[in-house]
Write a structure and sequence with these properties.
The chain is α+β, with helices and mostly antiparallel strands. It contains 8 helices and 9 strands. The protein has a 6-stranded antiparallel sheet. It binds 2-oxoglutaric acid.
Length: 259
């Protein structure tokens, strides 16, 4: 099955995103998709992430840059059927398919949740290769499991920065500072924010969580089918997960090779 057929089988149609949404994404480099996660799914995600954070710890060794005060959890495809939503939701898939010309697979599914007093990152791009010259490697999304507010460190981003073709660090003395054109994505829990990648990935980063609660969130990236995943899913996918999934889901995860 081709990726395009897998997308169709998972409900992605030509009009799954309205034309205005596609135009907004192309122009601004991000798209806010509301009501992707239901209230009961939100509760289930947070409960599972809490459980995993106790059993697995922060796993900072998996990160090139360890971040103090962050709860980081990886390989969520193997951590329960509730996470299947992240690689099967038609509206999220439609946005990824638009950006990657239908040539998509899951790149990584993880959680970066800021505890109180933490979370500020420099503005950055996630897929920083080939800036300005293509081909574009991948696209990311943030899944809001809490209401994102200025107080709890809603993700900040610079609209239109995907067309600049440079890293923030090339033009900012300190990417942790506020960029004059940045905005913060304040939105209700259940929203997914997708970042595009035309000339380069939209500049974005976590902000400081000044609230008294953990700001739970997940990150769900997709990439072109010839790009490496992190981790390579057919090497680590549990047999019971592989068996639970249908053909289309296996294509999106790129795990047919291990069948
Ligand atoms: O947590 C956030 O708000 C953004 C995180 C992010 O951009 C990243 O970890 O690459």
């Amino acid at each position: 099955m081709t990726a395009k057929n897998a997308l169709r089988a998972l409900g992605v149609q030509d009009d799954t995103l309205a034309q205005e949404e596609v135009d907004f994404l192309d122009e601004n480099g991000y798209l806010v998709l509301h009501n992707i996660i239901t209230r009961s799914q939100l509760e289930a995600f947070i409960a599972r992430l809490q459980e995993l954070s106790e059993s697995e710890g922060a796993q900072l060794e998996r990160e090139a840059v360890a971040e103090e005060g962050m709860i980081k959890l990886f390989d969520l495809v193997n951590k329960g059927a509730i996470f299947d939503l992240c690689f099967t939701h038609p509206r999220v898939l439609a946005a990824m398919a638009h950006m990657l010309d239908d040539d998509v697979k899951l790149h990584s599914l993880s959680s970066r949740s800021a505890t109180p007093g933490h979370g500020l990152q420099g503005l950055h791009v996630d897929f920083g290769t080939n800036l300005g010259s293509g081909p574009w490697v991948g696209c990311n999304s943030v899944w809001l499991l809490e209401d994102f507010t200025e107080e709890n460190g809603a993700t900040r981003l610079v609209p239109g920065s995907h067309r600049i073709g440079k890293h923030p660090r090339d033009v900012m003395a300190d990417p942790k500072q506020v960029h004059p054109h940045e905005i913060q994505i304040t939105a209700p829990a259940g929203t997914v924010v997708v970042f595009t990648c035309h000339t380069c990935h939209t500049w974005h980063g976590g902000a400081l969580n000044r609230s008294g609660r953990i700001r739970w969130a997940m990150h769900n990236a997709f990439c072109h089918r010839d790009c490496p995943q992190d981790p390579v899913l057919h090497q680590i996918l549990l047999p019971e997960v592989r068996e639970r999934l249908g053909d289309a889901e296996r294509v999106i995860l790129d795990v047919e090779a291990g069948l």
